[in-house]
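Predict structure. Input: Transporter, 291 residues.
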Amino acid sequence: MLASLFAVLAPVFIVAGIGYGWARSGIDYPTEFIARLVMNIGTPALVLSTLSRTKLDQSAFTNMALACVLCMAGMALVGLLVSRLSGLHWRVLLPAFMYPNTGNMGLPISLYAFGEHGLALAVAFFLTLSIFQFTVGIAVAGGASSFKALLRNPIVISLAGAMPIIFLQWELPKWLANTVNLLGGMTIPLMLLTLGVSLASIRLQQVGKGMLLGGLRIVLGGAVGWAVGELLDLETMAKAILVLQSSMPVAVFNYLLAVRAKRSPEEVANLVMCSTILSFVWLPLVLAWGL
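Output follows.
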């Protein structure tokens, strides 16, 4: 079991560690360019290539999407409660608790732990969460959001492109399938490198408080995911993916939104870093249960 867990987590932590070391060494890393490349080209290609290769049936996709919405609602309630108890503004904690790092960490771990089918289920969760994060999440954090901006979002466009594949059983032409497979292949490594680079720019403050709140995020996230999986009576793999994705640490994107909105970015940075550190201990436990 330990060898299996190491095989799953080692590539994720090593590649993220390379990004962290790269940034700490002072060598330039074009974060903005890489982020745009991953968001606008890599992720949409990964979505299309994964869903076209695995032939995820529509019931599995819709069940995972519904489970994601229920998990976000559950964690919103948790975030509101914790904000009242901790004294932090709800606009700071709510996005951090609702939107975990299901992309940079969730997708590669799901792939290495559960294979292509697991990745497809994780993509369904990631897509649903991303749509809410780029609309409700931006609005809650204090930024502007619009329906027009949502329609222009490449991830939403890739979701629209995936719908005929899932619900009508369409197949991509061979040339297009090869193209999106090639482009999608760059996404996970670049996500992990960028995660490491982003973590290198965050400094810890009030470590005790950050560890407590970060620990609550990942542990209660996993608990909510398990409860939703039981409620919807999901199949074994789908439930494992749901708990895994719900257990992820706070996404770096929440920190970027807090910086843009000037809403306690240092508190959000603390949550990102502390929850990520704690996930090195928590995720192996989740995987041991899931595997």
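Residues 106-141 form the longest helix (36 residues).
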